[in-house]
Structures are given as C-alpha cells and as structure tokens.
Amino acid sequence: MYWTLELASYLSDAPWPANKDELIDYAIRTGAPLEVVENLQAIEDEGGEIYEVIQEIWPDYPTDEDYLWNEDEY
C-alpha cells in the first residue's frame, strides 16, 4: 500500500466520518484511480472501524497547519 498526495486527494471530499466500505464505495463512485481503491482494500479493518479524517488513513496528508499561511496578514 502506498499513498501519494495525488491519490489521497481523491478522498479529501469523502463523507467523513466513514468506514472502510463507505470509503471504497465513494472512491469507485467518484472515479478515483484503481490504486486508491486497492489502498483502501489493503487497510486492516477491525470490526468496521470509523475513520474521522483522512489523516487516520494516511498520517502524512497535509493539513492547513502544514502550510506557512498566516490569515491575519491578509
């Protein structure tokens, strides 16, 4: 299983919170690349675990805090 920013971005608008099956269904319905579906299928799911945010699937996914953007300056 490997994630890239491009692959993970297909899940950024997913209906969070969601379980593994819901995310797979979302990826298929939105036309995400096959790699996204394969990555989701490779997740070890223990009893229908609910994922609140994409960082629970791919911890390296950038958040707003990762960018050096200070809204107070603008």
Descriptive notes:
The chain is mainly α. The protein has a domain of 48 residues. It has three helices and two strands; from the N terminus they run H-E-H-H-E. The protein has a two-stranded antiparallel sheet. Helix 2 runs antiparallel to helix 3. The radius of gyration is 14 Å and the shape is globular.
Give the helix/strand layout.
Elements: H1 5-9, E1 18-19, H2 20-29, H3 34-41, E2 50-51
Antiparallel strand pairs: 1-2
Helix pairs in contact: 2-3
Fraction in helix: 25-40%
**Could you describe the largest sheet, including whether it forms a barrel?**
2 strands, antiparallel
- Which strand order spans the largest sheet, edge to edge or round the barrel? 1-2
The computed structural class is: mainly alpha
Integer average pLDDT:
85
* Quaternary organisation of the protein chains: single chain
Secondary-structure element pattern, one letter each = HEHHE
What percent strand?
A: 5-15%
Distance between the termini: 40 Å
Number of strands: 2
Q: Uncertain regions: pLDDT < 50 for 5+ in a row?
A: none
Number of helices: 3
Radius of gyration in whole Å, from Cα? 14 Å
Task: Please state the overall shape, judged from the principal axes of the Cα atoms.
Answer: globular
Task: Quickly list its features.
3 helices, 74 residues
Task: Provide a brief overview of the structure.
The protein has 74 residues and is mostly helical. Helix content is 31%, strand content 5%. It contains three helices and two strands, in the order αβααβ.
